[in-house]
Amino acid sequence: MKRQTEIKLYGTERCHKTKYYQAFLDNKKVEYKFLDVEKHEAFAKELKGLYDNRKLNFPTITIGNKRLRNPSSKELNKNLQNEYSREY
After folding, report:
1. What's the structural domain count of the chain?
2. Residue among 42, 40, 24, 43 at smallest CA distance from 32
């Protein structure tokens, strides 16, 4: 599905919650970028810059300028609905 806004998933391959969000987005056929903050220091730095505490708060999903820290399925669906015309 073509996205209207860039979606990023910050996390790590070893994190079960990150894997959950990857499967969630894949099942919805949502295009997103997975940014592994353990393997790439630039991604870690980018994630730290999103938070005042400058910590690696993952998983974090960004949808445009909207930041979601470990969102519930309901919250993520709501934010995706705002970006796409069909319901999730």
Report:
1. 1
2. 24
Q: What is the pLDDT of residues 12-55, one digit of tens each?
A: 999 999 999 999 999 999 999 999 999 999 999 999 999 988 88
Give every CB contact of residue 22 below 8 A, 6+ residues apart in sequence.
9, 11, 34
**Tokens 């499967």 identify what position?**
23
Q: Can you tell me the distance from the alpha carbon of 88 to that of 80, in angstroms, rounded to the nearest whole number? A: 8
Determine the Cα–Cα distance for residues 41 and 30; give it in Å rounded to an integer.
25
Domain assignment present for residue 56? The answer is yes
Inter-residue contact 60 to 33 (CB < 8 Å): no
Rounded Cα–Cα distance for residues 34 and 43 (Å): 10
87 domain residue, yes or no:
no
